[in-house]
Amino acid sequence: MNYISKIFLFLILTLMLSCDSLLRDSEKPIDPSDTHWEMPTESNVVFENMINAFQYREYESYIKCYSDSTTNNGKKFIFIPTVTVDYPEKFENWGRSEELVYFQNMLSSCSIDSTLEFNILEEEEINNVGDSIQYQINYEIKVHHNLDNLNNKFVGSANIWLMKNPQNYWIIYYFEDISTSDELPNWTDLKEYY
Fold first, then answer.
1. Per DSSP, what are the bridge partners of residue 124?
2. Could you tell me the pTM of the whole model?
3. What SS3 state is found at 9?
4. What is the DSSP string of the chain?
5. Rounded distance, CA 174 to CA 66, Å?
6. Higher pLDDT, 63 or 112
7. Mean pLDDT lowest for which of 8-17, 67-76, 80-89, 136-145?
8. Second-level CATH architecture of 42-193
9. Where does the pLDDT of residue 186 fall: very low under 50, low under 70, confident under 90, or very high at 90 and above?
């Protein structure tokens, strides 16, 4: 084999090896909302998904926690504000779309390097009727926003009803916020601002 043939063979082998690495299936790009979302086959996974939605700033994951009347046997999400709410009319028709807008607005008021936290301090299952479960939780929310006239910490309690949707996943369809502190605002206050 002459010198030119050897070089030609070497180039072909090199090209084949390089093409092989190019032709391999590339990994799918990571979608943050898929990465931190767990299918809520157990009711408490809904709360874990909410915690992750705050931590990773994923509004898609957050809104998946709530009932959608178009896909969940017509049961729409209902939010009941605290009795201490300043503007109760804001919450008269509060549903899933308002919940999404509030969360997106809150996210946009926080710098990208600030932390957001949703913590459940206490969780108690009160009523379990098979495809519907009632929880009482005590929560703490920390929102490190850049607004001067709004507190960074929100505390309260909530009466939450979850149900199974047609895909057999748990979702929240009823959320009643309850004020527990005279000094600190609650989740209703946070939603009222945004």
1. 136
2. 0.80
3. helix
4. --HHHHHHHHHHHHHHHHHHHHHSPPPPPP-HHHHS----SSTHHHHHHHHHHHHHT-HHHHHTTB--TTTTTT---EEE--TT-S-GGGGTT--HHHHHHHHHHHHHTS-TTS-EEEEEEEEEEEEE-SSEEEEEEEEEEEE--S-TTS-SEEEEEEEEEEEE-TTS-EEEEEEEEE---SSS--HHHHHHH-
5. 9
6. 63
7. 8-17
8. Roll (3.10)
9. very high
pLDDT digits (tens, 9 = 90+) for 54-102: 999 999 999 999 998 877 677 899 999 999 999 999 999 999 999 999 9
| Type of residue found at 27 | E
Q: Which residues pair with 132 in a beta bridge?
A: 163
* Alpha carbons 15 and 4: distance in angstroms, whole number: 16
Across the beta sheet with 153-164, the strand order is 78-80, 170-178, 153-164, 132-143, 116-128
Residue extents of the structural domains in the chain: 42-193
Six-digit token string for 108 = 């946009």
For residues 17-41, give the mean pLDDT: 57
Cα separation, 173 vs 143, whole angstroms: 24
More confidently predicted of 8 and 178: 178
